[in-house]
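Thread title: Can someone regenerate the structure for this chain?

I was given the following input by a collaborator and told the matching structure tokens would be attached. They weren't. Posting the sequence so someone can regenerate them.
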Amino acid sequence: MTAIDLKKYGIKVETVHRNSSVPVLYEIGLRKEAGTAISDVGALLVYSGEKTGRSPKDKRIVRNPESEKNIDWGDINIGLDEHTYMVNHERAIDYLNICERLFVVDAFAGWDPKYRLKVRIICTRAYHSLFMQNMLIMPTAEELENFGEPDYVIFNAGGFPANMYTSEMTSKTSVDVHLERQEIVILGTQYAGEMKKGIFGVMNYLMPLEGVLPMHCSANVGDKGDVTILFGLSGTGKTTLSADPKRKLIGDDEHCWTDEGTFNIEGGCYAKAINLSAENEPDIFNAIRFGTVLENVVYDKQTREVDYTDTSITQNTRASYPIEFIDNIQMPCIAGHPKHIIFLTCDAFGVLPPVSKLTPEQASYHFISGYTAKVAGTEMGVTEPQATFSACFGAAFMMWHPNRYAELLAEKIKKHQVTAWLVNTGWTGGPHGVGSRIKLKYTRAMIDAIHHGDFDKVAFKEDAAFGFRIPESCPGVPAEVLSPKNTWKDKNAFEDTKSKLIGLFNENFKKFEAGVNKDIIAAGPKV
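Best answer:
Regenerated them for you:
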């Protein structure tokens, strides 16, 4: 236990565990935290309590003259006044002070030393400490000795609620970011992902100030140093497709693109565990071992074997592990400029082609749109797919207007002559309920073809409405699969559904038009 004095924060607790070893955190967690156990393969089984996912409606950013003009205020970036922030800050400190012990994680966000942030986490649970030691980049003994003052501090008092009667509080949960004080305060949620995404949000604010593009994406690199970046919302295959036996993983979720190349922000992975199996996702399955945190999973009380199909606690079961637990990785997690950018979408309408090539302007348009479609649930006879648009494929974490990120992307695509692709991992032969999901082996074959340059030698056909270009052949994929209309029995239904999807794209884009470059607007689909 490295000594650390927290008195400068008004914290007087004597027992503080700083950057503790994994066995020490296991011991404390098992002895002191309800619901903690060890799985049959040695992972730490933890329970986050009432909140089993992020609380985006409870996130606040303190309004301050210095940063106010840069932030895209609205439903995602909700403002908070200084006084209310200080009330919450005081409440967090008071709670931390009544705890028997505290944990401190001092570590880095960002593998590139030029851009990395020194982050300090102050928290009350061994689970949270181990989680952030997995997710951040841990310092060497020498780096820890010379760590100095952190750039950002997270006060995680999530075991204690916010006061609902405090102005601007909408619930007992509050996650407050103060860019000028360089702090984050967490109240009323013990879901560990709030800390991870809190830091990502800060990087999303800071990096554009340095001409760096922060990205919610996965990334991998080939033998020749060719980097591919994969953007995609939940359920599109971002994590699955980035784990490619022929390429080294740079990271699965958060990256930056600088003038020198790309780097991973994180030191670990936070993978969805729902329906996890050794057959479908061997890399993730094999990463679950001593040192991995398994969050909100259901397990056999006798054998401690996890049932990944059981979602009775939450659909959002998770595994957090250091990136070294994956075999085929780029270490350190830094590489050159991307050669390819792939936007993944799971189109449940069955309209978008499984692979198409985009111009730089179309790439910016699809980046700002951030489209996927969720499959209807079982409730109340909903049968139609629901379109979901999340700007920059991560609207919840972006502090600037989407155009700021889109212009950085367009500029870098042009400067480094990057090829952009739209890959649909969703439905073919009709919408959900009629058609079927595109086979994973076909999607992998298309991504292989992108990497091998196979599409350089084939003919393309331009789609009249969307303007993207569809390859007419691909090794390992039947030619008829490449053109969506060919796979539908009812061609009129295809055209109607396509018109409907175009309408949804156009309707969604209206809210960005005022702040977006004209060439990007012109690159959208037309009926």
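Confidence is low (pLDDT under 50) at residues 378-382.
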